[in-house]
Structures are given as structure tokens and as C-alpha cells.
Design a protein that fits this description.
single chain, 2 helices, rod-shaped, 96% helix, 126 residues
């Protein structure tokens, strides 16, 4: 009977140690689950906050790009109109002043030829 008593005590201590370990594991699991739930909630909150901001940024970028495209189209149309007006003015001037136009064209051609000649001479010397 004396031998059984230490055996019962050691079995009781082992059972108590196993219960303590099991409780520690369950406590750790609960803490881990709570931490993960909290983290998940935080991630969802951040996602909910970031989505409208990203949507607004995307809309603003699209609007800015559209304004840029519209500005380029408007600039192109203005440039085309100015070129058309210059062409019409030139043709009208030539019709009304053909001799003067020929003299201006000849003088301009001569000036350009002189400029090209000077440039080619300066390159030949270098």
C-alpha cells in the first residue's frame, strides 16, 4: 500500500501537469484567435478607407488626362485655323500683288542662299 501512494501521487501530478498544459494551449489559441480577428478587422478597415481614396485618385487622374487631351485638340484646331488663315492671306496677297510677291520671293531665296553659302564656308574652314 505504501508503494501505490507514490504512484498515485505521480499519476496525479502528471494529470495535473497535462491539464495545465492543455489549459495553456487553449489560452494561447484564444489569444491567437483574438489577435487574428483584430488584425483582420484592421485590414478590412484599412481596405474600406483606402478604396474611396483610390477611386477618387483614379477619377481625378482620368479627369486630368481628359483635360490634357481636350487642350491638345483645342491647340491643334487653333494651329490648323491659323495655318489656314496664313495660307489664305498669302494666296490673296500673291493674287493682288504678283510682281511684288515675286520680288519678295526672289530676295528671300537670295538671302537664304547667301546664308547657306556662309554656313558651308565656315564648316569647310573648321
Amino acid at each position: 500500500m505504501l508503494i501505490n501512494k507514490p504512484l498515485e501521487t505521480s499519476n496525479s501530478m502528471a494529470d495535473h501537469a497535462a491539464e495545465s498544459a492543455e489549459q495553456a494551449i487553449k489560452s494561447t489559441q484564444r489569444a491567437t484567435n483574438q489577435a487574428l480577428n483584430s488584425l483582420s478587422g484592421t485590414v478590412q478597415d484599412i481596405h474600406q478607407q483606402a478604396t474611396p481614396i483610390l477611386n477618387r485618385a483614379s477619377e481625378q487622374a482620368s479627369a486630368l488626362a481628359q483635360r490634357g487631351i481636350d487642350a491638345v485638340r483645342e491647340g491643334t484646331a487653333n494651329l490648323r485655323d491659323k495655318a489656314q488663315h496664313a495660307s489664305e492671306s498669302t494666296v490673296s496677297y500673291i493674287k493682288h500683288e504678283p510682281v511684288k510677291s515675286m520680288l519678295i520671293a526672289a530676295a528671300t531665296g537670295a538671302a537664304l542662299m547667301a546664308l547657306v553659302s556662309l554656313m558651308s564656308r565656315s564648316r569647310d574652314r573648321s
